[in-house]
Amino acid sequence: MQFKWNHIPPADNQNNAARDLGEKIGISPILSALLIRRGITTESAAKRFFRPQLADLINPFLMKDMDAAVDRLNDAMGHKERILVYGDYDVDGCTAVALVYKFLRQFYSNIDYYIPNRYDEGYGVSKKGIDFAKDTGVKLIIILDCGIKAIEEITYAKEQGIDFIICDHHVPDEVLPPAVAILNPKRQDDTYPFKNLCGCGVGFKFMQAFAKNNNIPFSRLVPLLDFCAVSIAADLVPVVDENRILAFHGLKQLNQNPSLGLKAIIDICGLNGRELSMSDIIFKIGPRINASGRMENGKKSVDLLVEREYSLALHQARHIDEYNEQRKDVDRQMTEEANQIVARLESQKHQSSIVLYDEHWKKGVIGIVASRLTEIYFRPTVVLTRDENLATGSARSVAGFDVYAAIKSCRDLLLNFGGHTYAAGLTMKWADVKEFRKRFQVFVEDHIEPEQREAILDIDAIIDFKDITKKLYSDLKRFAPFGPGNPKPIFCTLDVYDFGTSKVVGREQEHIKLELVDSKSNNVMNGIAFGQSASARYIKSKRSFDIAYTIEDNVFKRGAVQLQIEDIRPTED
């Protein structure tokens, strides 16, 4: 992928402000400038950013319907009604179900959980799930990470004498389901001050309110924060404000005393003994939790996450790891097929979006394939597969473009859809796919901005190798946890040279292991450039080049850092 590098030098007054702020809190102007770019301009705001406090979590009762939700849950427990915790089959849904179920089972035994089967029931609330609830005597369903559009299904449940409490974060329609309580900060009539909670986060706020109402110490909730961190990372919600607090303390829990299920995943990933980050969740832990829902049934992931015995958890984690290997094989095959289709479709080259469909693709991995294609071609992408006479699919977007709005513009063709700005799901009649494709592409063409069609690399600061000190890296780590809204800073160094020892590595010789010097110091910096072996010939030519990179721990040399190279380009004359 060809990146366009974007670096806006700070104005003089910003430089002065960064220097003043840096002196007050004891960090370099390079890093204090990053705080100012994030809107953090005072000493007190910087302290809150670097030391997120659980005491600063928002009062959960500020969320619309929270009183009604807590009252109905108290009533159900008081009357010994059977409660079912129901959730989506992705990471957010599974962690949300695990969190709510694990917390409530400490105080109440007449409770169970349910994850719909992606292939038999599809997304969200299903009639099969409601019938299961009725047959098992359930009177209250707490639904997590879905349900906000399930008007017909929740009406049907109500006719069966089953109440619903919805905990969702997807964009609601104007008409809401007939639930006894709907917890969703994106409701138009909700004044809750933070709108970007994930589904697990909404479930946590519900449990926080329940605990507060029943005089249960907040400390009983802290062991469940690792689920929040996993969900926030995997669902790619902004890591700011309340999410930053939950992710910060959730990562702390994950590193110090994770739940047995998560510990088992950590162990089978080979991550034990190192400090875990949001990246470890995104690339290692999250995909394994997702894998059982993609390949078979997401309930197996919840079984693992709520397991009480480590030996059983490890056994279950190994099964989930096998699902993940199967998922990767299917993912690779489908992405290759999709790339071939894109290459054949000459018309796609000039369009602002990609819509692909194939009736043989596996429903569980089309979301991953949509993500891959978005990364490769940098266009909003919809990937669809066939389920009898229906097409079901997933959409993914590029930075700054609202793919949910694009899908909503075709709603008269859709039987069901839901999601948020950067990811959505949809269902339509197979016969309507071609018309959807045409209209979706017209909407994207009319609304996408030229810069949204480019892969842009935002450079936070131009520095020299001599600036990369132990103190700088120590202070940089305090910016974590990273994610949307608080991306890992990308630095640039100009005029660097191969020290003479850089080499191509990897099973398919696809990466470059670098040893570099710059023109202003004798410091030799180690680096790794994943998937960029095409630049190796230029690097070995002894000509200078510029690099954009993040600064990481060197896993092979304790206490040292290495550069993870995002992009390489020849130095301009």
The largest pleated sheet is described as:
5 strands, parallel
Number of E-type strands = 19
* Count of separate DSSP helical elements: 19
What's the end-to-end separation, in Å? 23 Å
Helix content: 40-55%
The average pLDDT value, as a whole number, equals 92
Write down the Rg.
25 Å
Principal-axis shape equals globular
How would you write the strand order of the largest sheet?
3-2-4-5-6
* Helix-strand category: alpha/beta
Low-confidence stretches: none
Portion in strands: 15-25%
What does this molecule look like?
Helix content is 41%, strand content 19%. It is α/β, with parallel strands linked by helices and 573 residues long. The strands form four sheets. The chain has a five-stranded parallel sheet, sandwiched between helices. It has a five-stranded mixed sheet with strand order 7-8-9-11-10, with helices on both faces. Strands 14-16-17-19-18 form a five-stranded mixed β-barrel. Helix 18 links the parallel strand 13 and strand 14. The longest helix has 35 residues. The chain is globular. The model has no long low-confidence stretch (mean pLDDT 92).
